[in-house]
Amino acid sequence: MSKLHITTSINGDQTEFLCNSDESLLDVLRDRLHLTGAKEGCGSGDCGACSVTLNGRLVCSCLVLAAETEGAEIATIEGMADGEKLHPLQRKFLEHAALQCGVCTPGILVAAKALLEKNPDPTETELRYWLAGNLCRCTGYDKIINAVMDAAAEMRGA
Is this model's pTM higher than 0.85 or not? Predict the structure, then answer.
């Protein structure tokens, strides 16, 4: 099987890789590009642990073929911080102790950032619906919701 040559942008950096036609974006991110923030929790798009944005749209990278990303803009958890400066969502997750084992955290952070870019002032209900595709087995969701709402207020300057 011949490999496909893909050119894309990941976290603002032009990136090239080779992949098989049936290889998922998640596998390429983790195994070829060594961007291991996205996790495989289920492999079927049910848990959100592998969430990334693809051309500004929140997707489960386990359900996207890497070959489909030619010319696309991909954002992963690795691109969230600005060097050593954490994104407000990352800081608030730490302040609110909104993480434990960390498997779900990158996907939830990417999903929350995608929401706040679309709606900087979500209601708690809107936030809970938005994050419904991200499962957490350790923390429960109250600390996560509180951290995102706090970050949203800070980002709005409220």
Answer: yes
